Structures are given as structure tokens and as C-alpha cells.
Amino acid sequence: MNDFKEKYIGIIGAGRVGSNIAYWLSRCGWKIRGILDINPDNARKIAHKIPTGIINDVGTIIKRCDIIFITIPDSEIIPVLEEISEYEYDGEKILVLMSGIMPASILGLAGIEFLPLSIHPLAGIPPLDIRNNPFYGIFFGMEGNDKTVKLALKIIDDLGGKLLAIEPEYRILYHTAGVFGANLIYPIIHATEKLLADSCIHKTDIRKVVTNLITHSLDNYQELGIPEAMTGPLVRDDYSTILAHLFALKDDSLLPLYIQLMRDFARIINKETEFDELTEYIQNKIQK
């Protein structure tokens, strides 16, 4: 199995991850033999771009392919693995699970004859854009055995990613961390957009301004880490500014979010008591 690019690849699941994996691996010289999706139109769209064929059932994709990527929602993985276990096949096969939360051992449900591998892109993957490789520069959580780790390293290297080994018992925490970093930042982005719009900033400038704010914060974090990178009125003991924020938001739906996040910020820099005093003061003023 050392000459991986001579092997045929099948993709089960043509969502964001599956479509991008199929397309960008094909651009790196891997042989994508077929794509299977519960919605044939999804499979057809990505198959046309590679180009390759679409496959209509699990048994056929297992028969025709040597390396099978499973890129479907977590709730669908176990039924698909149980279906795979019902088929007979010839030759050595590798199952590649791309779930962030499920361990590679779950692949045993498909049969002990399969070689298991789990690789998970620790990033939000956008819809397929054939101009931009979404895997370039990102970390991949990886779990495999002696026979499949070389495959993982080759895939990650070809995609321009970076390896991040993860122990099975920590997968849920690892995936939760990914949700914080990749998903839960969007309520903050949305809040920033709303307040800029309320400030009469031109709509065409808002995304650029938000991106600039967050990029500078991330640059500071990369250079300095927490808490040294943290800045703002609470760090400077500029409590009058925070009071002004609280007053400005007193009738805004974003007030609870501001209070919760600022309290978490205060906890990190050991100023939770000071911030709670500010919120108590503002609440008393609002009630009056």
C-alpha cells in the first residue's frame, strides 16, 4: 500500500468536506474512482468537476475502490458502517473516517478486515471553490495504525495541511475546541457587524472592518498569547468606557452577550469583581 496514488479512491458523502477532498486530492494526482451521496445531484456536481463517475450504492463503491473516505454527518456513520459490513470484497481496503468526534475504532463496525484511519480538518470547510484549497495550512487531527499513518501523512502533505495527532479518549474535547474556534466566533462577528451597521458604517465596508479587527487580534494572539495579547478598556482599567458601552446597549438585544463575554474576559485577567460592580451599577441605574 505504499504507492497510494495508484490506488482508487471512493467518496461516501458529497457535502462540503467530501466535495473538497475529492476535488483537491484529484488535483494532487489521486485517482478518484467514484462518489456516492444520498442526493445523486450532489454527487453529480462534484463528479463533473473532477471528472469521475457517480456510484449509486455502498456495495459498488466498496468493490471498486481501495481507499474509501467517509465524509457524512456523524449521525449517519454507524448505519453506513453496518451496511458496509454486509458486503464481501477482495484485496486490502482502507476506510478513512473524517469525523472529528468519532474515534477510528468505530470503523471496526464495518469489519475487522478494513484498515482504519481517521483524519479530520480542524477548520470550518466552505462550499467547494475550485480557486482556493481550503485545506492549505490547516491542522488535521489524525488517528491511525502503523499501516495507515503513512497514508495520512501523504494525504495531509499533498493538501498542504499540518499533522495534529489526537488520542481517542480526547476526541470529544478536541472537537469541542474546534467548534469554539471555528463556529462560535460567528456570534461575535454578527454582533460586531450589527453595531457597525447601527453606527451608520457603509454596508460595503463592514466586512472589511470586521475582518481587519479580528485579523489584528489573531496576529497579536499568535505573537503574544493569552493574556499578553488582550487589550481594551478593561485591561486599561478604563471603567467609564465600559459604563458607556453598557448604557449604549441597555435597550439592545446584544447586552446579555456583551455582559457574558466581558465577564469571561474579566475572569481571564482577574478583574471579574470589578466588572460585576459595573454591571450591578448599570442595572440599578436602568431600574430607576
Structure commentary:
- The model has no long low-confidence stretch (mean pLDDT 94).
- The chain has helices at residues 16-27, 40-49, 58-64, 74-84, 149-159, 171-182, 185-198, 203-224, 239-248, 255-268, 272-287, and strands spanning 8-12, 31-36, 53-54, 67-70, 94-97, 115-121, 139-144, 162-165.
- It has 288 residues and is of the alpha/beta class.
- The protein is elongated and about 75 Å long.
- The termini are far apart.
- Helix 7 packs across helix 8 (203-224), helix 9 (239-248) crosses helix 11 (272-287) and helix 10 (255-268) runs antiparallel to helix 11 (272-287).
C-alpha-based Rg, rounded: 24 Å
- What is the spatial order of strands in the main beta sheet? 3-2-1-4-5-6-7-8
What percentage of the residues does DSSP assign to strands (E)?
Answer: 5-15%
Low-confidence spans: pLDDT under 50, at least 5 residues?
none
Shape: elongated
The rounded distance between the terminal residues' Cα atoms is 74 Å
Mean pLDDT: 94
Total beta strand runs: 8
User: By helix and strand content, what is the structural category?
Assistant: alpha/beta
Percent of residues in helices comes to: 40-55%
Number of helical regions: 11
Write the H/E string, N to C: EHEHEHEHEEEHEHHHHHH
Sheet of most strands: 8 strands, mixed
